[in-house]
Amino acid sequence: MSSRDLILGRVRRALADVPRDDTPYEQAIERGYLREHGGRSVEQTVDLLAENLADYRALVHRCAADELAPTIAGLLAGHGSTSVVLPAGLDAQWLAASEVTRVPDRAEGTSGELDRVDSVVTACALAIAETGTLVLDGGPDQGRRRITLVPDHHICVVRVPDQVVSSVPQALARLDPTRPLTWISGPSATSDIELDRVEGVHGPRTLEVVLVSGE
């Protein structure tokens, strides 16, 4: 008898006395979970997002729509970036004030080529305030997943308040589960058994988030 047969046999014995007309499992369990904690206003939700992003060691910036291009230019200059990879559908005006080499997100591009790029600029699908999480879904203004994993510096633009939700349940209701979702909570980091934190191991060492209003 295989392990599979053994397990299925145990399941059948456990269900032997369950009536055939018993309430289906998906209806028997009450799933009235909270969709958010507390009754925050829109402004408070955005503030919570900024607070939790910073708690994860992301660098948070706020600006109006007409300040976005100079803000991004300043962040690239402050990081010393001379090249930046861009998703194909990113608004060109976002980089209008930047004098850096623009590297397109190409299917034939290699990880070695991306590793030589200083920064990446993307939008996001949405941001979750309670967890300080950015979610990318590979949309035209976000590009392929790899462009946000290889370069050492990621600038992510979040449109507020439209792209900000309070909780994970609210996020899941708005996301398409068939898309390649990337959930980002702060810059890449890991710790060894002695709890020594090392950043930049599995993705960007520096994550900068721009909360832009008025878009």
From TrEMBL:
InterPro entries according to UniProt: FTHF_cligase-like_sf (IPR024185), LUD_dom (IPR003741), NagB/RpiA_transferase-like (IPR037171)
Domain of life: Bacteria
LUD domain mapped to chain residues: 52-212
SUPFAM superfamilies: NagB/RpiA/CoA transferase-like
Pfam families, per the entry: LUD_dom
Gene3D superfamilies according to UniProt: NagB/RpiA/CoA transferase-like
Protein's name in the database: LUD domain-containing protein
